[in-house]
């Protein structure tokens, strides 16, 4: 199935029907042709445990596949709320700036980029409207150091875009924004809260705040170069 964005916004990926038949190389080639025709990314996502045959086929089709730990929230294991972390139905301008700086330093290590770089970037930033919930860890005297977003479809919520400024990592802030987005989702009636982690190392951050491994999300795109 290929989802197509009706208005502005991020383009979607293709995914296999579930339950569905066995995917074939011809299916993947056909979908990629259609994606090129539509001018959308040749992107695919699926859950490995429900469509295990697609991994080898995607590789054969020339795609690169990230196997991301897929985690679901165990609501009973959420930690106590942490001060200075709040969830909003608006999108403060810091959310995109901090996320952009965080994702420019992948992995979980600390780094030099911090409040000075954030404040410089904020001067150029413009606010955007939102349909999602956003969390910020906004510390007295330091400002917004970590951010995250939750997007909802029915009673299912996906947490995404968790990022901490490299200089502020390893203080529990990434875990705290994740936990507050999850708590907010439950308070607003969500029955299932999930996320996919970029690596097993990143998954540990989420496991510490009540998420548990439920499967593997496969995220595929054409090999670059
Ligand atoms: C992943 C990321 C959000 C984690 O943010 P963070 O604020 O450092 O997360 P936490 O502080 O909650 O946890 C990180 C580590 O610090 C440790 N930690 C937490 N509180 C701590 C404290 N008070 N003192 C020392 N260490 C602490 C945690 O135990 C964890 O250790 P681990 O490596 O053994 O798992 C951050 O590294 C990041 O922005 N990475 C780049 C963007 C990215 O990949 N985002 C995730 C996409 S899925």
Distinct small-molecule ligands in the complex: coenzyme A
Shape: globular
- What is the domain tally? 2
Estimated share of beta-strand residues = 25-35%
Count the E strands: 8
What's the overall average pLDDT, rounded?
94
Coarse structural class: alpha+beta
As for the CATH topology of the largest domain, it is Aminopeptidase
Termini separation (Å)?
27 Å
Largest pleated sheet: 8 strands, mixed
Helix content: 25-40%
Helical region count? 6
CATH homolog superfamily of the largest domain: Gcn5-related N-acetyltransferase (GNAT)
Under the CATH scheme, the architecture of the largest domain is 3-Layer(aba) Sandwich
Order of helices and strands: HEHEEHHEEEHEHE
- Neighbour order of strands in the largest sheet: 1-8-2-7-6-5-4-3
Poorly predicted residue ranges: none
Rg, Å, rounded: 18 Å
Protein name: GNAT family N-acetyltransferase
InterPro entries: Acyl_CoA_acyltransferase (IPR016181), GCN5-like_dom (IPR013653), GNAT_dom (IPR000182)
GO molecular function: acyltransferase activity
EC number: 2.3.1.-
What is this entry, summarized?
The chain is of the alpha+beta class and 225 residues long.
Describe this structure in words.
This protein has 225 residues and is of the alpha+beta class. It folds into 2 domains: 1-68 and 215-225, no CATH class; 79-209, Aminopeptidase (3-Layer(aba) Sandwich), CATH 3.40.630.30. It has helices at 25-38, 54-60, 93-103, 115-124, 173-187, 200-207; strands at residues 44-47, 63-73, 85-88, 133-139, 143-153, 156-164, 192-196, 211-222. The chain has an 8-stranded mixed β-sheet with strand order 1-8-2-7-6-5-4-3, sandwiched between helices. The longest helix has 15 residues, at 173-187. The structure holds coenzyme A. Residues 88-225 form the N-acetyltransferase domain. Pfam families: FR47 (PF08445). One of its GO terms (molecular function) is acyltransferase activity.
